[in-house]
């Protein structure tokens, strides 16, 4: 994409438009998304495709239908924006996550703890957002999953939007819980973010839902079970583990960036 001189709107380069008109299958998913989105609103660029007889015929046939398409009601337009960030299936899961957080705080205030005063909030905080992320991409929970995941507008941007929506709900809830129980920020925030990024990083190889199941199971076996069995605070929940969690977070983000194109394939979003 480049910008024409004197025009602030970015237009596709000529050779990219030609490849799009020919139907080249090796166009990167992000470029394909950008071209299609731009052509929807830019008549001059559609005119640049006019010499191609196939493109001209398609746009000529679609133009009357587009003109007759009714405007989306205001409520529907707002719902469409929300669904671009949050899967309809994620709503009940997000409510359940907040309920689990509240229950953990209530048990902590009642004096119920694991090991030597290990707060239940600390034990569940890292995996709570992972549950929401998994629900956002579950085939079983979202009837429109394959339609959404297979579109050119899917891929890493949609993954980030839905993950950010989950964190926007879960992190404030955990922050409020930490204030109530007097927990430090580093004790839950870094593990929370590291687990979420780790889910996306592993999801680039095995699928997001499968990655969430693997990491939750690993947390239960490596951290929760020994904490209950030996009644002691694991090192992973101490402030001293903050640099390790930061390193895990940085590594996961690096893997996500390197493997970003994997999220454009349907099998990575299962």
Descriptive report:
Keywords: Membrane, Transcription, Transcription regulation, Transmembrane, Transmembrane helix. The chain crosses the membrane at residues 82-107, 119-138, 159-182, 188-206, 213-230, 242-262. This is Zinc-finger. InterPro entries: Anti_sigma_zinc_sf. This protein has 270 residues and is an all-alpha fold. The protein folds into two domains: 2-68, no CATH class; 88-269, no CATH class. 68% of the residues lie in helices and 1% in strands. The chain contains 13 helices and two strands; from the N terminus they run ββααααααααααααα. The protein has helices at 14-22, 29-41, 43-48, 53-68, 74-85, 90-109, 120-124, 128-136, 145-149, 156-181, 185-206, 208-230, 242-258; strands at residues 2-3, 10-11. A two-stranded antiparallel ribbon has the order 1-2. Helix 6 runs antiparallel to helix 8 (128-136) and helix 11 (185-206) packs across helix 12 (208-230). The longest helix is centred in the middle third of the chain and has 26 residues, at 156-181.
Output the keywords.
mainly alpha, disordered N terminus, 1% strand, 270 residues
Task: Summarize the helices and strands and which ones pair or pack.
Elements lengths: L1 E2 L6 E2 L2 H9 L6 H13 L1 H6 L4 H16 L5 H12 L4 H20 L10 H5 L3 H9 L8 H5 L6 H26 L3 H22 L1 H23 L11 H17 L12
Antiparallel strand pairs: 1-2
Helix pairs in contact: 6-8, 6-10, 8-10, 8-11, 8-12, 10-11, 11-12, 11-13
Protein name: Zinc-finger
InterPro entries: Anti_sigma_zinc_sf
Keywords: Membrane, Transcription, Transcription regulation, Transmembrane, Transmembrane helix
């Amino acid at each position: 994409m480049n910008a024409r001189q004197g025009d602030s709107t970015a237009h596709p380069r000529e050779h990219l438009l030609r490849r799009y008109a020919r139907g080249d299958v090796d166009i990167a998913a992000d470029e394909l998304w950008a071209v299609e989105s731009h052509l929807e609103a830019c008549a001059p660029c559609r005119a640049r495709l006019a010499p191609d007889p196939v493109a001209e015929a398609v746009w000529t046939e679609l133009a009357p239908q587009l003109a007759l398409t009714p405007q989306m009601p205001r409520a529907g337009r707002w719902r469409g924006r929300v669904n671009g960030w949050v899967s309809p299936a994620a709503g009940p899961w997000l409510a359940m996550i907040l309920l689990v957080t509240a229950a953990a705080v209530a048990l902590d205030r009642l004096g119920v703890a694991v090991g030597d005063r290990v707060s239940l909030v600390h034990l569940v905080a890292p995996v709570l957002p992972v549950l929401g992320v998994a629900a956002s991409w579950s085939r079983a929970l979202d009837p429109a999953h394959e339609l959404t995941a297979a579109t050119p507008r899917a891929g890493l941007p949609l993954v980030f939007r839905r993950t950010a929506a989950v964190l926007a709900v879960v992190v404030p809830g955990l922050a409020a819980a930490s204030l109530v129980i007097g927990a430090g920020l580093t004790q839950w925030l870094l593990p929370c973010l590291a687990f979420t990024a780790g889910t996306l990083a592993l999801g680039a190889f095995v699928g997001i839902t499968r990655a969430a199941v693997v990491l939750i199971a690993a947390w239960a076996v490596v951290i929760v079970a020994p904490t209950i069995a030996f009644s002691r605070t694991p090192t992973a929940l101490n402030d001293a583990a903050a640099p390790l969690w930061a390193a895990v977070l940085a590594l996961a983000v690096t893997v996500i960036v390197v493997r970003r194109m994997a999220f454009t394939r349907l099998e990575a979003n299962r």
